[in-house]
Amino acid sequence: MAAGEVSMTNPNGQLMITYRCSAACRHCLVMAEPEQERTVMSVEDAVRWGLEYAKLGRHVMIAGGEALLFYKQVLAMCAALKARGVPVAFIESNGSWCRSDELTKRRLTRLREAGVEGMYFSVDPYHQEFVPAERVCRGSRIAKELFGEDQVYAPNPTLEEAGDLETVAGDPERLREYARSRRVSFIGRAADALTGFADPVPLAGLLEQDCRKDLDVDHLREIQVDPFGFVRPDMCPGVNLGNANQQPLAELGCTQRVCEVLLLRELAERGPASLLPLAEPAGFKPRSTYASKCHLCFEIRRHLVRRMPDELGPPHAYALVRG
Ligand code: SF4
């Protein structure tokens, strides 16, 4: 596989540069939305952490929120990383900014010149509830012309298919069918917006599930660092391996780190059951059912985050802070 090829299987290091987004998708793990504050990762941090990802053998990718709401900042990050020999493998975008062919071509051309090797466009009913199909199809089409077919990932990229996803978003029955046919983690906004589509699972069964595989960081396809420096598996935002402002990211983004930190080690071995003894004295009363173990984990963490901001923060990942 070529370095930087847009792929779901490459080990990636994500620079999650903002919680701000042009959309507020129902499945968003990090609660990104237009109301999130405008905090954006600095170019200096992006370069520092991009170089650390390279030490871990991970391709650097940029995401948000909607990273390209901050196009100039992203362009500067990409150019600075390219100058240090670490080109950005791809940028993830919802395509909401692709308002015309001219604008889309100009921006993507400049990103390519700044070393970006590919694009990933999000296309599904959750995104198409907010982003017109025509825009994301334009982004995907022009990106393929500029970066090459293999360097652009966009499922269902035809206008008809993306247009149909808009219809799914507006039809509760079809959306239920869609949500039930795909894996949903039920954390972030999905904990509030999609659990109604899931079969309830009794608490007792969830308390027996561990997270060994989910926290085997060395073998995870993607880890992420957010604008505040929190490093975590990309599927567990709020389960922090540490803060890259205090310790080199390359020391945090590994399974060894999970073994070293009691809270993480317990979470790996005993799953969300290990968090209950912390949450119950703080007033958390578990329900009899949840949609999944991650749903239970998220609800416990949402209850605890103000008391444990370093371990479980930032509050933005629980939409407890607004811009
Ligand atoms: S239960 Fe928590 S730690 Fe385990 S995989 Fe889900 S979000 Fe991650």
In short:
By secondary structure, the protein is α/β, with parallel strands linked by helices. It is 39% helix and 10% strand. The protein is built from 15 helices and 10 strands.
Account of the protein in words:
This protein is of the alpha/beta class. It folds into two domains: 12-182, TIM Barrel (Alpha-Beta Barrel), CATH 3.20.20.70; 205-318, no CATH class. The protein is 39% helix and 10% strand. The chain has helices at residues 43-55, 71-83, 101-113, 125-128, 133-147, 159-169, 172-180, 190-193, 203-206, 249-252, 255-260, 262-270, 276-279, 293-304, 309-312, and strands at 12-16, 59-63, 90-93, 119-121, 152-153, 201-202, 222-225, 230-233, 242-243, 289-290. An eight-stranded mixed beta sheet has the order 5-4-3-2-1-7-8-9. Iron/sulfur cluster is lined by residues 187, 211, 214, 236, 239, 267, 271-272, 293-294, 297.
Topology:
Blueprint: E1 12-16, H1 43-55, E2 59-63, H2 71-83, E3 90-93, H3 101-113, E4 119-121, H4 125-128, H5 133-147, E5 152-153, H6 159-169, H7 172-180, H8 190-193, E6 201-202, H9 203-206, E7 222-225, E8 230-233, E9 242-243, H10 249-252, H11 255-260, H12 262-270, H13 276-279, E10 289-290, H14 293-304, H15 309-312
Parallel strand pairs: 1-2, 1-7, 2-3, 3-4, 4-5
Antiparallel strand pairs: 6-10, 7-8, 8-9
Helix pairs in contact: 1-2, 2-3, 3-5, 5-6
The structure holds iron/sulfur cluster (SF4).
